[in-house]
Design goal:
With 175 residues, this protein is mainly α. The protein has eleven helices and no strands. The longest helix has 18 residues.
Length: 175
């Protein structure tokens, strides 16, 4: 490393050496969420503090995403609120998943049926929509029941007969 580099320059170079993904803000909601999950996982792996995360994330935002963060950051600072990583993620999710989107996805989850999907596809769809049903996410029985009730009738009968205690067991029986 360059002996004349500031600590922030060294930190930024190290962070960029991991080739973190960028976000333009024109991606769809699922891609935006994947971006945040990837960035968050990298930050966790590097054991970065909130301050470092906030200072570095801006270097991975471009175009619309960067403009959004500059305006959002200014609004937060004008209220005198301290910016931390959880606040960034909360604001990000509100931007990416507006209330109408969350309601639509919650309704899709509530009516999800296996239909023509194989079990793996059904599990993937179930998992991707689960975050839009927070009342079920933290309730193991409700999650298990929702999963079983969405299965096709032949698989439903098989899984329901064994009445699994948890989602993982229900999923494994369905497979």
């Amino acid at each position: 490393m360059d002996a004349t580099a500031t600590p922030m320059e060294t930190l930024l170079k190290r962070f960029q050496s991991f080739k973190p993904p960028t976000l333009k803000g024109t991606e769809n909601a699922v891609d935006c969420e994947s971006w945040l999950e990837d960035i968050d996982q990298l930050f966790d792996s590097l054991d970065y503090t909130d301050d470092r995360r906030i200072r570095l994330v801006v270097h991975r935002l471009h175009g619309v995403a960067k403009s959004w963060w500059i305006m959002t950051k200014k609004e937060i600072e004008n209220r005198g609120t301290v910016i931390n990583w959880n606040l960034f993620k909360t604001k990000f999710y509100k931007r990416v998943f507006p209330v109408s989107y969350k309601k639509d996805k919650g309704a899709e989850f509530a009516t999800l049926k296996q239909g023509n999907l194989n079990i793996e596809e059904y599990v993937t769809k179930f998992d991707s929509l689960l975050k839009f049903a927070p009342h079920i996410t933290d309730n193991e029985k409700a999650k298990t029941d929702q999963f079983i009730n969405g299965l096709n009738s032949d698989i439903f009968v098989f899984v329901n007969t064994g009445r699994p205690d948890n989602f993982a067991d229900a999923m494994n029986q369905a497979k």
